[in-house]
């Protein structure tokens, strides 16, 4: 086949998980939680599956879930959203991103993407015919490079993608940073597409701020979330889009031709999950922060330089102090094959690899697995 997609490789997550399996490695690579699945939500799915219905739910999402999402917006962000016109349920955030990008972009447009970026953005942006303008954030602080960002905007800019909390670097954007991005978007009449799948994984008392809630940004901002992250159920693929009623119809045009709907039972179970009391959401954050600290301290004790992470379930480490030479990919391969621990090369989130080889670990794992990974690394070094 001769097409743009024929030239793409297999995702790094698939590749590294396969390598981990082949070598019996502890998989701290691909981002999926283990041992954190909430039994109540799974039980709610069981009930919903028994009760039905089993035919196509409404294209915009089961009303039960849309109402729960509206309550969630009000409860966590003091954000009033109309469940009939401003919420769309999708098959995961991956579909939400594809639908939103395909709906908004025309050939010849420019799209600003902050680097490091999640792997699904660029293929869809380019398939839609746009040119990606990359703006690189640099470790260890991952500060927003304002002059570079300003320079990336042009009369052709259709939208900017902002991922906060940010995979893979764990940056959580402040309201001030989002307001700066929003001001540039307004000046250039661009949309702000916010990938907020890790909205409930923000640590150390910092708060997640959805850009859509900031003054003057509602009409041009699209907020994307995922139950896969909030409920540690990545196979469920229940995502959602929140956008102003004036913008939503065009986003729905793309969704109706991508997946149209998402299984009702899973939507109902997610609705049940969203209505849980604060203990669930606080517990998730607390548990995840404890796992972050456990892994970060363990890796530091071994001698790796661990970068701070304020959100997501990922942390980045610099393996060079341990004498691991070569590219980040080579380091991840060596660690998997020889140490039995899998991480993800941070270069996979870049168009051109960053200067220093950095690797990403997922800490949303059982404490026993984190400890086992650390023990294996200790034996290896
Ligand atoms: N965006 C980011 C930043 C992610 O890390 C992921 C990973 N799972 C997704 C989107 C995709 O989410 P989903 O599994 O709901 O499709
Ligand atoms: N979002 C997950 C990660 O960053 C991976 C999802 C996938 O495998 N496509 O690791």
UniProtKB/TrEMBL annotation:
<dbReference type="InterPro" id="IPR015421">
    <property type="entry name" value="PyrdxlP-dep_Trfase_major"/>
</dbReference>
<dbReference type="InterPro" id="IPR051326">
    <property type="entry name" value="Kynurenine-oxoglutarate_AT"/>
</dbReference>
<protein>
    <submittedName>
        <fullName>Aminotransferase</fullName>
    </submittedName>
</protein>
<keyword id="KW-0732">Signal</keyword>
<feature type="domain" description="Aminotransferase class I/classII large">
    <location>
        <begin position="26"/>
        <end position="377"/>
    </location>
</feature>
<keyword id="KW-0808">Transferase</keyword>
<dbReference type="GO" id="GO:0030170">
    <property type="term" value="F:pyridoxal phosphate binding"/>
</dbReference>
<keyword id="KW-0663">Pyridoxal phosphate</keyword>
<feature type="signal peptide">
    <location>
        <begin position="1"/>
        <end position="20"/>
    </location>
</feature>
<dbReference type="GO" id="GO:0016212">
    <property type="term" value="F:kynurenine-oxoglutarate transaminase activity"/>
</dbReference>
<dbReference type="GO" id="GO:0005737">
    <property type="term" value="C:cytoplasm"/>
</dbReference>
<dbReference type="InterPro" id="IPR015424">
    <property type="entry name" value="PyrdxlP-dep_Trfase"/>
</dbReference>
<keyword id="KW-0032">Aminotransferase</keyword>
<dbReference type="Pfam" id="PF00155">
    <property type="entry name" value="Aminotran_1_2"/>
</dbReference>
<comment type="similarity">
    <text>Belongs to the class-I pyridoxal-phosphate-dependent aminotransferase family.</text>
</comment>
<dbReference type="InterPro" id="IPR004839">
    <property type="entry name" value="Aminotransferase_I/II_large"/>
</dbReference>
<dbReference type="InterPro" id="IPR015422">
    <property type="entry name" value="PyrdxlP-dep_Trfase_small"/>
</dbReference>
């Amino acid at each position: 086949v001769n097409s743009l997609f024929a030239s793409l490789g297999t995702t790094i997550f698939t590749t590294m998980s396969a390598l981990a399996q082949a070598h019996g490695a502890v998989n701290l690579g691909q981002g999926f939680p283990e041992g954190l699945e909430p039994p109540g939500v799974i039980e709610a799915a069981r009930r919903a599956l028994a009760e039905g219905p089993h035919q196509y739910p409404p294209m915009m999402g089961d009303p039960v879930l849309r109402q729960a999402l509206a309550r969630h917006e009000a409860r966590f962000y003091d954000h009033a959203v109309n469940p009939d016109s401003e919420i769309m349920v999708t098959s995961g955030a991956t579909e939400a991103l594809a639908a939103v990008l395909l709906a908004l972009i025309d050939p010849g447009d420019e799209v600003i993407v902050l680097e490091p970026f999640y792997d699904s953005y660029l293929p869809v942006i380019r398939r839609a015919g746009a040119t990606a303008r990359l703006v690189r954030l640099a470790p260890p602080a991952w500060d927003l490079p304002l002059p570079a960002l300003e320079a990336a905007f042009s009369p052709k800019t259709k939208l900017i993608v902002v991922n906060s909390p940010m995979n893979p670097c764990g940056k959580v954007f402040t309201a001030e940073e989002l307001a700066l991005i929003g001001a540039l978007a307004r000046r250039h009449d661009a949309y702000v597409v916010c990938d907020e799948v890790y909205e409930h994984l923000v640590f150390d008392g910092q708060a997640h701020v959805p850009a859509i809630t900031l003054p003057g940004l509602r009409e041009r901002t699209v907020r994307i979330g995922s139950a896969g992250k909030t409920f540690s159920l990545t196979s469920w693929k229940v995502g959602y889009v929140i956008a102003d009623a004036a913008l939503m119809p065009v986003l729905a045009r793309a969704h109706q031709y991508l997946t149209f709907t998402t299984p009702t039972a899973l939507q109902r179970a997610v609705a049940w999950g969203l209505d849980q009391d604060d203990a669930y959401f606080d517990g998730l954050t607390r548990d995840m922060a404890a796992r972050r600290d456990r892994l970060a301290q363990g890796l530091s004790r071994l001698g790796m330089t661990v970068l701070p992470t304020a959100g997501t379930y990922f942390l980045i480490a610099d393996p060079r102090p341990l004498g691991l030479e070569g590219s980040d990919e080579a380091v991840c391969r060596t660690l998997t094959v020889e140490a039995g621990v899998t991480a993800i090369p941070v270069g996979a989130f870049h168009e051109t690899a960053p200067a220093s080889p950095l690797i990403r670990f997922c800490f949303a794992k059982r404490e026993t697995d984190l400890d086992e990974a650390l023990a294996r690394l200790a034996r290896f070094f």
